[in-house]
Amino acid sequence: MEFGYFPFDLNGTLKSTLDEIRALGIGCDEWEVEREIGKLGLRSDVLARPLRTLSKGEQTKIKLAALFLKEIGFLLIDEPTNHLDENGRALMASYLAGKKGFILVSHDRALLDAATDHTLSINKTNIEIQRGNFSSWYRNRALRDQFEAAENEKLQKEIRRLETAAAQAKHWADQVEASKIGGGVCRSETKSIGGRAYIGEKSRRMQQRRKNLERSRQRAVEEKSALLHDLEKNEELRIRPLSYRAELLAEFRGISVFFGENVICDAVHFQINRGDRIAL
Fold it and tell me: Where are the beta strands (DSSP E) in 7-132?
């Protein structure tokens, strides 16, 4: 089976976008290409333009349409909604919903819900596949995590109980062991209960009980570990800004931003003061 990957690089130097598509070895008539890109909201006149004159979003659509026109056996599509606006993402979701034979990797949950019917999850210790879109998988995962977290709490309580019992048994065993050399039992008491033989047997039993409790605790720990192997925690994100004495950190005047020869914004003035938080 042949596999294809998106995104990929086109030649980028040919006369027209149609030439770029045909250079991939796609044996389609021009009307078939026009029909395919039309499903993604592109007009046919883009095919006559050089690829470099197309926006990033238009290039994304051209590349994806070309892959499906090539009829490769199976596609791995990685983040196809990059460079697309809201309308473009909706068109992409509708387009992929009508296709088969691909794995879609995306942070766009709406796209995943609209375009997929199975979800493959790469967990910490295994890989699972489940019928349904992302939302159904996410609900099932949340319910499973909730159940496993409740079971974990029960196990933690049991482990604490076993640890307390094991510590107590060790303390008793140590006391009895010390009495074998006369450290904790008087001579008259030793004679009355059968002497050192009795104390030795009692010590042996206490040590055995301690070992049994330790094995039970270890089994509980192993069970806990097996239960929690797929639970994930969100680590706390801490931002510690550096301290500056000056109030004004930077000032920009008359800034212009270009994309190629196109002006994105012009004559921008702004300041960055101590403590400001700026979103890009």
Answer: 74-78, 102-105, 118-122, 127-131
